[in-house]
Amino acid sequence: MIQFLKFLTVAQMLIMALLSEASAAPTQHKIGAALGITGMANIWGKAARQAIELAVEEVNANSKYKDSIQIELKLEDTQSTAAAAITAYNKLVSQDKVEAVIGDVWAFLTTPLVPLSARDKVVLISPTVMDKSMHERSDYFFSFGHSFAGLKASAERFFRLHPKVKKIAMVSFDDYWNNAMSEMFQEAAAATGVEVLRDIKLTDWFADFRSETSVLKSLGVDAVVGAWHPETLRQRMQEQKLDVPLISSSDAVEAVLFRGGAMVLEGVYFLDWPVPAEFTASYRQRFGEAPTHEAHNAYQIVVALAEAWLTSEGDLRSRLLASKYRGITGAIDFSKAPFVNQASGELFKVSAGKFVGVQ
């Protein structure tokens, strides 16, 4: 009898130890990413995918998280089309049973997923979609894309740095993003006493800007705002001897790095958000190249999810809505949903193929 009791005690201790070990195991969380791995958005999709993979690796290895949570990533290709984006989302939610979906980098690829997130009550977060370029809303949709208003102070700085600039004209593609960028530049011009003579709207994504540059020259502008394909616009300005400052958007970065525009864009100004040096170093070490296309925001989404699972209670949406912290780019405040990234942009200049901040 005594031996039996001793055996029972040992068995109970083993069971308790096993239960304790099981209860201490990290909680497994599954997230999905629906990105343009192929198609027109593939460069952006690649940068976002690599940043997400880096974040998952770092979170799973970080002593702050690894004993409590582990994240598994499921990836689907949107093929840079809205129809394929819907298919990718449905697979991630219905088959892979992910708890959150990281959406694509372009608004038209994320827009059709927003009502689906409300239908499924699944958190959907875009790394890059900016506020005025997205008009769909859902209680489950968030974006780390920056606010157009966050660029206004830097646009005003450009005008103040060029006091001789009194009259400008703008060339923009006719979509939500370009129209919001034009509106922001108009506000910055008005705040600094600069007159906007013309806002030329185009519907050809691959326009060569020849006739538009002729119009700009005839207007006698002191500077030009061109938010997309600035390398083509600058080349036409040089050909037609329109020697005035050009200011662009973050598309200047893509033009320099991927479209061979470094030489023609020398001296051109543009607006963008600074990429954190620590993130850049980690990304470069892991992938052998510099991060682009707001890859840092894709990275921040994974960290935000990890923080929510680690520090809050309730469903994921409720946990996120309670999140307010200092991210790698600045203030992140989910109470300001759906656009939670409060970081401000900066003024840059292309110099010897590099991007130099302008104070």
Strand order of the largest sheet: 7-6-8-9-10-13-14
N-end to C-end Cα span: 84 Å
The CATH architecture classification of the largest domain is: 3-Layer(aba) Sandwich
- Poorly predicted runs are 17-22
Keywords for this entry:
14 strands; Rossmann fold; single chain; elongated; 359 residues; 5-stranded parallel sheet; alpha/beta; 13 helices; 2 domains; 43% helix
Structure commentary:
It is a single chain. This protein has 359 residues and is of the alpha/beta class. It folds into two domains: 27-146 and 275-336, Response regulator (Rossmann fold, 3-Layer(aba) Sandwich); 149-272, Rossmann fold, CATH 3.40.50. Helix content is 43%, strand content 19%. It is built from 13 helices and 14 strands. The strands form three sheets. A seven-stranded mixed beta sheet has the order 7-6-8-9-10-13-14, sandwiched between helices. It starts with a helix and ends with a strand. Mean pLDDT is 91; it is low at 17-22.
